[in-house]
Amino acid sequence: MKYEYTTKGTCAQKIFLEIDNDKIKNIIFYGGCSGNLKGICSIVKGMNIYEVIDKLKGIKCGNKSTS
User: How far is Cα 60 from Cα 24, in angstroms, rounded to an integer?
Assistant: First the structure.
């Protein structure tokens, strides 16, 4: 299933996800730091979505309360 998520309070404006059986098949960020986001995409591809949420939840960007 494909999803499009519009972010709030982050550098990336949108996240495009393709998920199959709770695993991330593809992920693309629109906007934000290209190098960092390409790294994140590479790392989380193939991972269980709930594992990714657990690992990334609460990580802040500078003084922002977003993760």
Answer: 22
